[in-house]
Amino acid sequence: MQDAQPKDLPHRLYKQYRFQLSATTSSLNIPKLDVDTAVSAANFDLAHPIPRRFTQMIKTHGYAAQSATTPLALFDYEHREPGPKDVHIEIDFCGICHSDIHQARNEWGNAIYPMVPGHEILGTVKQVGAEVTKFKVGDLAAIGCMVDSCRICASCKAGEEQYCDNHATVFTYNSKDKQGNLTFGGYGTNIVADESFVLKVPTNLDPAAVAPLLCAGITTYSPLKHWNAGPGKKIGVVGLGGLGHMALKFSHAFGAHTVMFTTSPGKIEDAKKLGADEVVLTKEPNWHAAHAGTFDFILDCVSADHDINPYLALLKRDAVYCTVGVPETPISVHAFSVVAGRKSVTGSAIGGIKETQEMLDFCGKHNIVSDIEMTSFDKLDEAWTRVIKGDVKYRFVLDLKSLK
Fold it and tell me: Does pLDDT of 18 surpass 80?
């Protein structure tokens, strides 16, 4: 006989609870329990809709920061058993992002410990919930910077979950989910997320080199697409690193005339190979003179403190200067740098799930991946030091085999 739904239990939570309860009782080979009895026995709390006594948690091995001043170390933890709409991914690769370092060291002042970093995640689907339709066991799958949002505000409905109007974006790590549980990222062997925030991976691309697309890729793709980089447009990219090298690839693939700005003569040849039509050395005298008033859009990928005002003089009337780098000190803009020409200074943060999938599909079509250097957890401290120094071409990727 069909179990009766408790009157104070919302239908969505009731369905999720029934799925978990059924899966658990079945796996333990015990008789099916009446839901009302189980709810009462478990002292069901709507704020924590699936009591852990009825779930089989996924044991996970990873690396975590326990404080802002201690190095990452081995850390064992658990992810939830997949619910009806969840996908369980065994992680194969995770890119190292500079923001992993910023957050683990609490340089942005928002750290929650213990912290398992990593939001450039690619792996193999191990389990799916009963209502999952986009993935099956054995598929390649990816997770980027978010694993949930409010889903009901104007931004979320528009596919811009990263700008959730209710500030309810749940980030892949250093965040809390809707049940108040701490999220753990890709520096571990497993992750579980709702399929709405899991991405399909083009099978023609190198999986390890796809991982950094989940942050470095979408962070540069989104603003270039939003401000219409393409044929007939002159696009500038400031800084050749993890973000900058992807910006060059995308701007070139969009068909724009692409100019690289760098302080390093040693990066000229790399910039041209990555898609730059021109390279400007910004340490040269009067480096900006030949390009004054000629750019439609400039994307700043530099996280170190620097003066952006000379670049504003390069913009056309009504053109845009966008930063995706996040310097530690506030950006200073001279008023006349923008009022003369009605120029705009703005920023951009990753992209929504729909756009991230669009970006991955675009990369599959145009054979675009990140330039990577593989590393392992026993070399993590060295890799982080080199990221800080800018000594990597152009993105580190952790091989999770070293933890399995």
Answer: no
pLDDT tens per residue across span 183-238: 999 999 999 999 999 999 999 999 999 999 999 999 999 999 999 999 999 999 99
Place of tokens 């709405």: 196
pLDDT of amino acid 55: 56
Q: Say yes or no: do domains 59-212+370-403 and 216-347 share a fold.
A: no
The CB density around residue 317, as the number of other CB atoms within 10 Å, is 9
Residue 259 confidence class, pLDDT cut points 50, 70, 90: very high
Question: What length does the chain have?
Answer: 404
CATH architecture type of domain 216-347 = 3-Layer(aba) Sandwich (3.40)
Calculate the alpha carbon distances from 148 to 139, 175, 194 in Å.
Answer: 21, 10, 8
CA 23-24-29 angle, to 5 degrees, is 100
Share above pLDDT 70 across residues of the chain, in percent, rounded to a whole number: 86
Query: Which residues on adjacent β-strands are paired with residue 74?
Result: 63
pLDDT at 304 over 80: yes
Alpha-carbon span 85 to 65, nearest angstrom: 30
pLDDT in tens, 324-356: 998 878 889 999 999 999 999 999 999 999 999
Q: What residue segments make up the domains of the chain, in order of their start?
A: 11-54, 59-212+370-403, 216-347
**d(C-alpha 85, C-alpha 87), whole Å:** 7
Give the CATH fold of the 59-212+370-403 domain. Answer: Quinone Oxidoreductase; Chain A, domain 1 (3.90.180)
Long-range CB pairs of 41-44, under 8 A, 24+ apart, other chains included: 44/6, 44/9, 44/17
